[in-house]
Every structure is written in C-alpha cells, then in structure tokens.
Amino acid sequence: MSMISVNNLRKTYRVHVKPEGLKASLKGLFRRRYKEVRAVDGISFEIEPGEMVGFLGPNGAGKTTTLKMLSGLIYPTTGQVHVLGYVPWERHHEYRRQFALLMGQKNQLWWDLPAMESFRLHQEIYGIEDARFRRVQGALTELLDVGKLLHQPVRELSLGERMKMELIAALLHSPKVLFLDEPTIGLDVIAQTNIRQCLREYNRDEQVTIVLTSHYMQDIEALCRRVLVISHGQLIHDGPLSDIIDRFATYKLLSLRFANGDWPEGLDKIGEIIERSRPSVTIRIPRDQVADRTSELLGKYAIQDFSVEDPPIEEVIATMYSTATDRNKHQRHCDGGSECNNTTDSESNMANA
Amino acid sequence: MQVRYGRILLRFWKNSMLRELSFRGHFVVNIITQLLWVAMTLVFIKVIYMRTSDIRGWSEHQYLFLLGTHMLVTGLFETFFFTNCWRVSELVRTGGMDFILLKPANTQFLLSLEQIDYSAMASLPIAVALCVYGVVEGGVQLTWGKTALFAGLIVIGVVLLYSLVFMFAVTSIWLIRQTGLNNLWFYVVSVARYPSEIYRSFLGGVLWFVLVFIVPILLVANLPANVMVRTFEPMQVAYLAIVSLIMLGLSSVVFNFAMKWYRSASS
Q1: Which of these CATH numbers, 1.10.486.10, 3.40.50.11690, 3.40.50.300, 3.30.360.10, describes A4-9+42-236?
Q2: How far is A126 from chain B (nearest CA, A)?
C-alpha cells in the first residue's frame, strides 16, 4: 500500500478583489467582488514508503497548499487524500502522532526560551518516554552539531542554527512521514549542506517517507530521486530529475578550446554563441544536431579540448515553467474550442509520460 | 490521558515562568499599576459612602467584598486565559496556528492554556486582602459550606468568562483581524464590578435582564459575593452553573466549526 495517495485533489480559494482607490474601497465594503483562485487544480500521485520526493514549481504554483492539505491544516475543495491510511483533515491524534511538517518560513520554538525547553514540551505533547527522548534528541543534536546551543534562548541563535533546532523539534517524535516546506530557505551554503546531510542520513536510517519543496535545485538534486513538478496547480512532471532534462532541454552546450589560441571565423553559423573567453567558446546547439556539429567542428579545426554538457537544470526548469504557463493561458483562452485539440492532446501525453 | 494533559499543562506553566523570569521588570511594574488601580477604586468607593450608607442594599464592607470577588474572578481569567484568547487573532493572521493544529492533542486545550500571565497574578493577593477585610469588618459568619460554594462559583465564573471571550476571539478566523478583544474585555470588567441592582432601574431593566439572564456576566462577581456576605437564591447558582457549562460546550462547537475555515496564512 502507498504511504501517500492523492487523487484528483483541488483547492479553490475565493479571493476578495480589492479595487484601487478609496472610493472604490468604500464601495467594496457593501458590495464585495470575489474571484476564484484555483491554487491546486486536480493533482494525483502516489508515494511509496521510504521514498524521498521533491516538489518543484514556481512561487504560487500550489506546492505549499498541497503540503498543507496533506498535513490536514486546510480542507480541500474536492478530491481524496490518504496518508498512512488516514484522511489528514480529519485530524486524528493517531495520524498527527506519526507525521511532521517543517516550514522554513515559520517557527514553532518558543522565541525567548532555549530550544531545549520547547523540546521538553514536545516530549509531553507527543507522550515520548524519557529514555527514548534522550536517545533521539541526543542523536539529532549530534548529527546537526548543535549541542552547545541547546541552552541558549532561540532569539539569540542565527537563522541556520534556529532551522536546525526546528528540524530537531520536528523529528523528536520519530515521524514516519515528513513534509518539508523550503527547509533551507535563507541559509548559507554550509548550513544548507548540513541540513541536507541530516535529511539524507535520516531517510536512510529510519526509512522515513519525505516530501520536500525547495527553490534550491541543489536540495532536490542531492536528495530526491523522484520529482513532482507543479505549475498553476497542475502536475506537469512526475519522475526522475534527469528526465526533466531529457524532456525539456532542447539544446546542449558545446565548449571548445582552440589549439592556436584564437577562434576561427563563422562559428556563429554552427549555433548561438553564448560565451567567449579566449581561447574558449561555448555554443548552444540543438540536441538532435549535437553529433553532426561536433564531428564537423573536430574535422575542420585544431581543437585542444571540448565538452558537451546539458544546460543548467535551473534554466531547463525555467523553460518548463514558462511552457506550462503559455499552455495554461492558451487553454483557458480558447476554453474547449475546436482548435484547442492539440493542446488537450499534449496535456494528456504529458500526464501519461 | 488526563495525566498527559496534566503534564502538558505543567510544562506550559514552567515555560511561561521561565520566560517571565527573563523579563524581571514586567512583574514589578504590573504590581505597581494594580496597586494604583485598587487605590483609585477605594477612593472612589470611599467618596460615595461618605454621602450614603448603602447602595441598593450593599453596605460599604459588602461592596469592598464584591470588589475583591470581582478582582479574583477577572484576575484568574487574565492569568490563565486572556493572553491566550488575545493571541488567537495573531495566530490566525500569521498562520502560527498551524503548529497547534499539527499536534496530537486537543487543539482548543493547547490554544487556550499555552501561556500563563504570571504578572496578572499580582492582583490576586490584593483581591484576597479585600475579601478578608470585607468579611472581618462586616462581621460575617463564615461556614465551610459557604466558602466552598464561593470557591465553586469563582471557578464557574472564570469558565463563563473564558467561554465568552474565547468565542469572540475565534471570530478572527473569519475576520482575520480582530482587535476588538481588548475593548470587549474592558467592557465586561467595567460592567461586572458594580452591584447588579444598580442596573435594574436603568432602561426599564432591559440591560439588567440581558446581563443577568442572557449573557450572565453580572452574576460572575455578584453571585459569589452574595453567597458569602449577603443572601442568595439557590436557583441563581444553579442557573449560572448550567449556563457556564452550556457556554463551555458551545465554545468547543464554535471553535471546531470555525477551524474548517482556517486558511493557514502565508507559506
């Protein structure tokens, strides 16, 4: 049985449209205009025990809303969700005992007290017995190397240290499912690496199922074999990160270093030159032409060194988001008209892929 | 189960105490403002009783006892519940309620009892002193029965105040901003600290009827004071107890209903 199963989940918000200007605002007191915002628009997926899944998408795509529904904080408009066999928004104690949600932008530790006091409170709320509490808390403190900071008021900690404490607080009750909403936001590279390391080890040792959202591609690359990409509330990709490149990267980057220290003429006919730094040059080449162009160049010029690389994943994802946005606009624009058949087809292809 | 909630409560109180201790000045300032307020009220009462020997059947000593009772009820409410009720709006607006909803324990319990305002306790010794003074100077015969009933009514009064203010606070789930809570509490405190009889002739007794029978906040201090230093009607005691329990149940229904609308602000 899946650990998490989501079926056709939707969340629609009714948002008050605030008109500009005082006069219009006064009118709005009596007669309010609303518009519907589809934050999550019919997504489905299954996650197996022990999986570590990354949730990607631009701001406002619906990632956090989905995590909040999985945690039972908010009710969906329609659709079914089962996590550990429970319906999250029924808020069973038994369910809440077995998962944790960590939010990078919110903190739950008592601000004026040392983190240890908040941990003790968690111990009472989750009913963790003393010996186990000491063992788990000791192990996590060691893993994140924050032993010295346990007795310092949380307000005096740096952002990274505080996030580590938040992580410990979230893991104290040994959850089976862990939702992480941008756990590394605003942290420096060292703290990010620490937290990643901790998550990887924790996932490996405890077989915890983890769903993670992040804007830092390194988080996803380092941790998640599987990635769900969501845009405008819809799932546009479900599979390994590398598949995104295969499916959405239309070109490769060819770097050349010429033997005689200078470039020959006419390179721009081969492809778009995106970087020149004597004696090297980087050219963007459509994927299906990479083999031909490379052999052509190698035959023609004296080349000291060359490499063919995929474009940076951030760029591919950005392309992917914008394609999704265009498609979305197009689809809504013609709303089921006959010329839209193509769009609908490609939509279903993507979902099947 | 009850044991676990007891332990959570102790931990809440301990953490609140630890925090209070890190702001030492707070407590002292609160005691001083409380004392000033009591001094002003005492002067006010003295001035009135210089011209009359009773207000609607209440002698000066009885009135002082009523004042002490009133401070006891409101002081207990402020110590245990006011900060928590006040925070509801803040937690809704910032999305901080998320963490309370995630915990495997009764959400209303966690929300209502997390903080304890030790500085509000400053009024309790003053309240007790006023009560003792009223009893001793008024020559009231104390019995165990009366004292127990008095104590029970204090608890019932606090429960009623909590239920009403909490329900009001919960409306912030729809309104998002709810800053009327301070005002509401100020009105409740102001209305309930006078003998209930003075409202009888006002507006043909409509206000009196509402504040005694519909939202019985007038009984919260008046009834225990009547029990102790004057005479009382057992029916009123039963009525207040029943209304408090109903209100407590209602607060839970309203809260659970409201939580379906919680939108969990920001990411």
Answers
A1: 3.40.50.300
A2: 7
Q: Write out residues in chain A with pLDDT < 50, as ranges.
A: 333-353
Subunit contact A64:B267, Cβ cutoff 8 A: yes
The answer to whether the bond into B224 is cis (omega within 30° of 0) is no
Chain B residues near residue A120 by CB distance under 8 angstroms? 11
Distance from CA of A277 to the nearest CA of B (A): 43
Answer yes or no: do B11 and A97 touch at CB < 8 A: no
Contact A106/B22, CB-based, under 8 Å? no
Pairs across A and B, CB distance < 8 A: 73
Could you tell me the two tokens for B42? Answer: 């005492």
Report the topology of domain A250-309: Alpha-Beta Plaits (3.30.70)
| CB atoms near residue B112 (< 10 Å) | 20
User: What is the interface pTM, i.e. ipTM, of the complex?
Assistant: 0.89
From-to residues of CATH 3.40.50.300 in chain A? 4-9+42-236
For residue B176, what are the CA distances in angstroms to A24, A30, A102, B137? 21, 18, 24, 50
Q: What is the mean pLDDT of chain A?
A: 86
Residues on chain B touching A117 (C-beta within 8 angstroms): 14-15, 18
CB contact under 8 A, A103 and B12: no
Query: Nearest Cβ partner of B104 from A64, A71, A96?
Result: A96
Triad B235, B236, B240: Cα angle to 5°: 120
Whether the Cβ atoms of residue B218 and residue B211 lie closer than 8 Å to each other: yes
Q: What is the rounded average pLDDT of the residues B52-57?
A: 88
Cα-Cα end-to-end distance for chain A? 23
